[in-house]
Design a protein that fits this description.
Layout: H1 2-5, H2 14-41, H3 45-50, H4 52-81, H5 89-104, H6 115-131, H7 148-152, H8 159-162, H9 166-187, H10 190-199
Helix pairs in contact: 2-4, 2-5, 2-9, 4-5, 4-6, 4-9, 5-6, 5-10
Length: 200
């Protein structure tokens, strides 16, 4: 019971930062898929979630969404670290890209996607990560903006039933990134982490 009230440990090393990125990327993406589907199905949610066809669609959606979550959380981390990186921000950025790709590579190819789609997802993720350092850091609430539509299009609900609900998903992502930012700001010593990544 006391573990429930225990504060999460501070983020003091690169491995723990990688775990934080992984956990939050997966959580935000999966929570959105499940909660939106449950809300859209209403009273039929229990029936829908037992159907094999829907379960397969959810599996595809969550694995396709995961790289989007990694890109968002990585950009958030970058925004916190960059002011502390000084003239080494390029080195810190490169180390962060490598870290996030290592996180992606923790997972074997999901059977729901297949090798080609998973390899393509990694390629697109790497492109997105490389572009993060080309513009000033964004506010946490603005980070999902370029990816919100792609995430919304993954929802395992027929397009006609969700056509007008994009703002709901976009706002969910905005609030989620604010919450992730708040947690990371409390747990991570940004100057120390920037120095660690710079050394790496």
């Amino acid at each position: 019971m006391f573990a429930f009230f225990r504060r999460p440990p501070p983020i003091r090393d690169v491995a723990t930062l990688g775990d934080f990125i992984d956990r939050n990327a997966a959580f935000v993406m999966q929570k959105g898929v499940y909660e939106y589907s449950r809300a859209r199905a209403g009273h039929y949610a229990k029936v829908l979630f037992k159907e094999k066809e829907f379960q397969d669609a959810v599996e595809v959606a969550r694995w396709r969404a995961y790289p989007l979550g990694l890109a968002m959380v990585a950009e958030l981390v970058h925004g916190i670290l960059r002011p502390h990186a000084g003239d080494r921000h390029g080195v810190v950025h490169a180390a962060m890209v490598a870290l996030v790709l290592d996180v992606f590579d923790r997972y074997p190819v999901p059977p729901a996607l297949g090798d080609n789609a998973w390899r393509e997802a990694r390629r697109v993720l790497e492109q997105r990560l490389n572009r993060i350092d080309l513009h000033p850091p964004k506010f946490a609430k603005d980070i999902p903006e370029p990816l919100a539509r792609a995430y919304f299009d993954l929802m395992p609900i027929h397009q006609k039933l969700r056509a007008s609900e994009f703002p709901t998903i976009r706002n969910y992502l905005r609030v989620s990134m604010i919450n992730v930012h708040d947690e990371l700001s409390k747990r991570m010593d940004a100057p120390a982490m920037a120095a660690l990544l710079s050394a790496a």
